[in-house]
Amino acid sequence: MMEENVAAIVTPAGKGGVAIIRISGKNPLDIAEKMFTPVGKKRVKEFEPYRMYPGQIDGGNFSDYGLCVYFKGPASYTGEDIVEFQCHGGESVARGILRQTFRLGAKPAGRGEFTKRAFLNGKLSLASAEGVADMINGESDAEVKAGYLLYSEKLTNKVRDLQAELKTLLAGIDVSVDYPEEDIEEQHIEELRIALQKLHVQISTLAAGYAVGKKIKSGVTVAICGKPNTGKSSLLNKLLGYDKAIVSNVAGTTRDAVEGVLEIDGRKFNLYDTAGVRESGDAIESIGIEKAESIIRSADVAVFVADYLAADEEDARVLAMLKDKPLIKVFNKVDLAKDDTETDADVHTSAVTGEGIERLKTLLYEKSFGARGEDAAFLIEERHFDALQRAIDSLKKAIAACNIMQPLDLIGIDVKEAWDALGEITGETATEAIIEEIFAKFCVGK
Ligand code: GDP
Prior knowledge:
Elements: E1 6-9, E2 18-25, H1 28-35, E3 36-38, E4 52-58, E5 63-71, E6 81-88, H2 91-103, E7 107-108, H3 113-120, H4 126-137, H5 141-151, H6 154-178, H7 182-208, H8 210-218, E8 220-225, H9 232-240, E9 258-264, E10 267-273, H10 283-298, E11 301-307, H11 313-321, E12 327-332, E13 347-348, H12 357-369, H13 382-403, H14 408-426, H15 432-440
Parallel strand pairs: 1-7, 8-10, 8-11, 11-12, 12-13
Antiparallel strand pairs: 1-2, 2-6, 3-4, 4-5, 5-6, 9-10
Helix pairs in contact: 4-5, 6-7, 6-14, 7-13, 13-14
The structure holds guanosine-5'-diphosphate (GDP).
Guanosine-5'-diphosphate binds next to helix 9.
């Protein structure tokens, strides 16, 4: 596809060493020739692709000294011809050069337009384009890693293999429908059922990866619970390493849930210090309690904090609220203990000395993800999970249809539906609306 030239600044806004302006389209070299004066003898039109050429870049009312590089389509990011200018990294410098490309005929690139063109030109799948966005927006190492795997077509390749198997089954169905032979139809349906069941297991296994993927993308929600004054805010601060929550020794002063983001082994944990979870006549405190309860409901893991020296039945009441959650029991203020008191806690901590904090982090990781060093996750997008879920539903329908010996062409409709659902991940069957929505989330210049 040879589209009109579009241009954008592809480096972030703000001051920096270098800024990059990209033009992509059918003839960006024509524009470059009019605004770049090479130092050497080679004219712009004679530039070898993928080589940097120094020279003067025209910014309209000023010039800059910088570099020009030409990427020859289809071996370029967008699949089209691309020219990039590297200039000094001031916003006015980059903007002036960008404006000059507009004067010479380039149009402003829309959100995610370069990546969208790459997708439309078959340079990457839709899932891969989403991986690019995940890498750019990633807030933890694990998210960047998952984004990179998506971008490298890890999911797409798996999905395409599954699609290929479905396609083979569909071809078999077509042949049988076109040349029906009563006596072998029964046998064909039985074989089909076995093949569909195998695919059902494979897709279900793939979809199950979202349990981890979701936590990587959104972060693990951790509710720090316990009665007032047990040291929840202090522990939160110690975990985060800075004073985020307001610490007070007046019971019930942590009224709002305070959030802090912690990275453990490259994975993101959203910590919530719940306000005093206890019965109270105080209206403001009740609001806090409602908030705390809703945090507990949505939490992936609960950390129950009790005062090491003064555990009582109120602690037991809080603990009862957490009974359905993966739980870490913490006995805090161990520094005040005079002897090695036996407890049923998972970890003894001191928010004052830092004792037990590393162990608490390890427990948080293990409760959320299991032991460290497992397979890298790449199913992190809800959209992909939904599509897999729909493929699974269609396969279930197809298998049920096999069980009651429905005619092959009817079974074929469900199988085709499963294929279509998978195609939404790769982009083959994604509607214009889905594609628009995905690229609208990108920034300009990507
Ligand atoms: P919260 O109401 O559960 O959030 O408790 P805070 O974090 O506000 O702490 C209540 C009081 O206990 C404060 O005076 C803290 O300084 C103190 N405190 C918290 N953790 C510890 C600890 O591990 N050791 C000691 N000695 N004091 C602590």
